[in-house]
Amino acid sequence: MRIKRRLPLSLALAIAATAVAISPAARAQQPSSQRCFWARNVNGFRSIDNRTVYLRTSSRDVFELTLFAPCLGVDWAHNISLRSRSSGNICEGRMSGLEIQARTTAAGRQRCSITGVRWLSPDEVAALPSRARP
How high is the pLDDT of residue 32? Predict the structure, then answer.
């Protein structure tokens, strides 16, 4: 019986020791919080291929959207809209239920699923080609 009681206690102590042992440098590399934006605050977009879309929000942040599959004509679209089944607040990370509706002259209206959202740092935005910056 004593072994059964000591095993969970020793396991808990090992987990606690591991959590304390994380260095400050490792903690600094971990993201402190996710970046989010409201779909209604998007005020510009650009796409240089049919798999990636860059959005600029009213707070001047730029987000990169990764599409599930090639979205024909999204790089030629004059306007797009974001549709979310869950909320109008869109955050970084893997997304489900989020899609772009792009209107193009050649393909008409396209619905394209989004699999990932990523905030770009100011340095990453500056490194984008000028034709890719929203």
Answer: 53
Q: DSSP secondary-structure letter at 56? A: E
Amino acid sitting at position 71:
C
As a whole number of Å, the CA-based R_g of the chain is 21
- The dihedral sign for the CA sequence 92, 36, 41, 61: negative
Residue 113 near residue 98, CB atoms below 8 Å: yes
**CA 127 to CA 125: how far, in whole Å?**
5
Task: Give the sign of the dihedral formed by CA 121, CA 57, CA 114, CA 110.
Answer: negative
Do 44 and 125 form a contact (C-beta atoms < 8 A)?
no
Hey, what amino acid is at 63? F
Contact 24, 98 (CB under 8 A): no
Predicted TM-score (pTM) of the model is: 0.71
Closest CA to 98 of 73, 80, 75, 78: 80
Q: What is the pLDDT of residues 72-127, one digit of tens each?
A: 888 888 888 888 888 889 999 987 788 988 876 666 788 899 999 999 999 999 99
